[in-house]
Design brief:
about 120 residues; 5-stranded mixed beta sheet; 5 strands; globular
Length: about 120
């Protein structure tokens, strides 16, 4: 049995060089119920890390996804990676296919690399 995190993880929104925060902006544009569901799931990860399915899935290459069921039978994914005790939220999208599209993963990986090279 994995040992649960005793302290809350920090959650940090990835920011571009211009200061945009794509995940925060994406979440803010969603309907209120969807924002609440995604926020609650991220909070669950912050307090319960490490977690597995059905809420969190390992995507490989250091990427993880928070899996949220939204209204109208939709699902969202927020992709993040860990930097010490901090979740770095790098990409969010509404999932429309069974498998995570390659372009969504590529964008998340690119943002992860940008973050790590700027550190």
């Amino acid at each position: 049995m994995k040992k649960r995190n005793k302290t809350k993880l920090e959650a940090f929104f990835y920011a571009t060089e211009k200061g945009n925060e794509p995940v925060r902006e994406w979440i803010k544009a969603l309907p209120q119920d969807d924002k609440k569901a995604i926020g609650e799931d991220i909070l669950t990860v912050q307090y319960g890390w490490p977690l597995g399915m059905p809420l969190v899935d390992n995507l490989g290459k250091g990427l993880w996804e928070v899996r949220t069921k939204l209204s109208s039978s939709r699902i969202s994914r927020v992709i993040f990676f860990m930097d010490d005790n901090t979740m770095i939220l790098v990409h969010g999208f509404i999932k429309k296919t069974q498998q995570t599209p390659k372009n969504e993963l590529d964008l998340a990986l690119e943002r992860k690399r940008e973050y790590e090279s700027a550190k």
